[in-house]
Amino acid sequence: MIHIGFLLFPKVTQLDLTGPAQILSRVPDARVHLVWKDLQPVETDVGFSIVPTTTFDDCPQLTVLCVPGGFGMAQQLNDETTLSFLRRQGEGAKYVTSVCNGSLVLGAAGMLQRYKSACHWAWRDYLPRFGAVPVAERVVRDRNRISGGGVTAGIDFGLALAAELAGEAQAKLLQLAFEYDPKPPFDCGTPEKAGGELVARLRELQAPRFRQAEALIEQAALAGA
Amino acid sequence: MIHIGFLLFPKVTQLDLTGPAQILSRVPDARVHLVWKDLQPVETDVGFSIVPTTTFDDCPQLTVLCVPGGFGMAQQLNDETTLSFLRRQGEGAKYVTSVCNGSLVLGAAGMLQRYKSACHWAWRDYLPRFGAVPVAERVVRDRNRISGGGVTAGIDFGLALAAELAGEAQAKLLQLAFEYDPKPPFDCGTPEKAGGELVARLRELQAPRFRQAEALIEQAALAGA
């Protein structure tokens, strides 16, 4: 049995986990776990709640440990219960992975020292605070660390991981089953393609939430130093 | 307030709804509802459960009605409670939409007669049983019906709908925020690109579930004839 566990925390960007979970759930012999401190429904960033399937205490040793991101990520950076769970699972996991700014939580747990990692573009520059090496790609692999970029990169990440776990032929079946032949309506999915004006507008809109998060990143980086 | 409601039914392919819900939840003044018969958690195809936010009885008039798909779709085709809810909401909704084979449920409710519609490629040929005109595109619009193709097409659909609801500039911001610059690992996301062998293998794997569904499609088509 391949145990694939996603950390499910309050205000997670739910697509960070629901994208790759969709793909990985169809890998033969795979079982997807959503792991949190207890089994109460966890409110996602979209407003609806998802029910954890297991807890930190009851979770079996995972084959794949995955930390998704979102604005709620910041509250996990200094949560010793969460960080201990990640470190404990990470020791035995075959793959230690993340999507979006979930890589910062792995970093805060001290699990990305001198590892290359992906991250959401707007959060990528914080990776070095945790000793990690940011890479501007959709999917990044460094030894047993595999990471996806921002949000929708979780689907590319999920397929890459499916190929790793079950072979390329299986991953191709899944890409066909999920009709993954994307046609983005615009060509602005990276800051480079979007251009300075769009990037500036988004940064301005999100500035208050980044300021809050930055304080917590700072605190976590100092604690780990 | 823009009320965007997704039908949340057992064994839904959860990415069909979690993809577009992610995007549409960030449209200004939008509120995402997950609607089901009661408020108990609903088990998705991945195994984990999502909690409905409202019920058929309590749901406000939706601006956007959206039916996702999945193998669980087949049980909805002959469920008069579900179909009545869709018809009632469809009368007042500004947009009547679907992702994946959710279009078959709209069809069974009699809501796609002489409308062009998208559908998951493997289910597309059933659309004419409900008087709908299948179109092999990621996002299809016909009057106020907007539909997405299979599973991951829900993201393209979500961005197209965001542009419709809030303008192109807003949709571009969202595409950047969700870093939607896809890089599929393989080039096999449609049956044409995947080729006959891969398509045949997937059809063979899924044949038992399709046979079950076909009987229910047949029943619904006869009931609506």
From TrEMBL, chains A, B:
<protein>
    <submittedName>
        <fullName>DJ-1/PfpI family protein</fullName>
    </submittedName>
</protein>
<dbReference type="Pfam" id="PF01965">
    <property type="entry name" value="DJ-1_PfpI"/>
</dbReference>
<feature type="domain" description="DJ-1/PfpI">
    <location>
        <begin position="5"/>
        <end position="163"/>
    </location>
</feature>
<dbReference type="InterPro" id="IPR029062">
    <property type="entry name" value="Class_I_gatase-like"/>
</dbReference>
<dbReference type="GO" id="GO:0006355">
    <property type="term" value="P:regulation of DNA-templated transcription"/>
</dbReference>
<dbReference type="InterPro" id="IPR002818">
    <property type="entry name" value="DJ-1/PfpI"/>
</dbReference>
<dbReference type="InterPro" id="IPR052158">
    <property type="entry name" value="INH-QAR"/>
</dbReference>
